[in-house]
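To: structure desk
From: M.T.
Subject: fold request, one chain
Message: Could you run this one when you get a chance? Sequence is below, nothing fancy, just the single chain.
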Amino acid sequence: MSRGALWSWGRVLGSGATFAVLVWRLGTGPFLEGVRAVDGRALVAAVVLAVLTTVCCAWRWTIVARGLGVELSLPAAVAAYYRSLFLNVTIPGGVVGDVHRAVSHGRDVRDVGRAVRAVAWERFAGQVVQAVVTVVALLALPSPVRASMPVVAIAVAVALIGVALATRSRLRGWALPRRAWAGVALASAVVVGGHALTFVIAARTVGVTAPASRMLPLALLVMVVMVLPSFGGWGPREGAAAWAFAAAGLGAQRGVATGVVYGVMVLASTLPGAAVLLVSWWRRTRPASRTEPTLREGHARA
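Reply: Done. Structure tokens follow.
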């Protein structure tokens, strides 16, 4: 079995193991509660917020791609990003969509190497901004981990400086202007805010009435854990939410239910990506269907 297959199976098994532990400790009630709580308003909110966050992600991608000398229009980036998100949440591995959009874009511009680097840097930039926003918010707002945040902040700062020094030679050749960096940071911050707001709405959907100032740190904590190997975020998200809600005095059961609602909302928000896949498939097969009658006519004449 290849390393990629092992990694994909590891994500699936990790999600399954987390679910098994949660069911063992809390039962199936919180999961059923989350499924029953999902309503039309939550799904509409998820889709609307996803439009904002996806456009911002696509904009960030165009900034990075152009900084690397690769052309990419915003409409094409939005469509490709929706397709990428749908593949990421429906196929084990969590990065299949990103690989697909990188390679597809690379083939379009005849430079797969630069296109892959653009996607890698775009995702890395988003995670860096998420880490910074999370640390700042957890330093300023009450949360179960506030006491340890000064140490975490120092560790994150040291790690970022280390990465910057290690990649300094590559960054010199990137030549992004300052306003481009500002655009990447702004887009990433909006994306983090949109995802956090989606989580807060999921919590409200299951009946959590805690103020937003109390919910935002919990949302950011869960979002950090969601980068761990899993299948579409399922498993680690519910486990982290159970711990965070319990530590905040909101109940582990409500945390699991919130995680389930959030997962359903995210899945619904990526469905436009399925439409992009269908349109792409239709465009690929249409020329073949048009040439088939011509071939048949040629055989008949012969």
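Reply (cont.): The CA atoms of residues 67 and 176 lie 5 Å apart. Let me know if you need anything else for the meeting.
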